[in-house]
Amino acid sequence: MASKSMEFLKLSEEQIKVLEDSFKGCKYPDGTTLMLVAAECGLSEEDTLKWFKLRNAQWRQAEGLPAELGSVLD
User: Fold this and answer.
1) What is the pTM of this model?
2) What CATH number should be reported for the domain holding residue 56?
3) What ranges are recorded for DNA binding (predicted)?
């Protein structure tokens, strides 16, 4: 799921596959999981965290939820 907001990362198809597979398993990874995913992708933890934040916003929007984490009543 590549979008213009994620293009700054210039990810390979393999990196996207690893990130998407990780996202399917856990939308909000803890520090250890984030570190492992970043290492598997060859990305920094900061870039991996940015990807997860952007991907979560996309997922929430697709689900009709607010882009930011919060109550559905917001």
Assistant:
1) 0.79
2) 1.10.10.60
3) 4-63
Domain presence at residue 4: no
Within 8 A by CB and 6+ apart from 56, the residues are: 27, 28, 69
How many domains is the chain built from?
1
Q: Can you read off the two tokens belonging to residue 35? A: 């570190």
Place of tokens 């990130």: 19
Q: What angle (nearest 5°) sits at the alpha carbon of residue 4, between those of residues 42 and 57?
A: 80
Q: Which domain holds residue 24?
A: 12-61
Helices (H), 1-74: 13-25, 31-41, 45-62
Position 6 confidence tier, pLDDT thresholds 50, 70, 90: low
CA distance linking residue 19 with residue 54, whole number of Å: 12
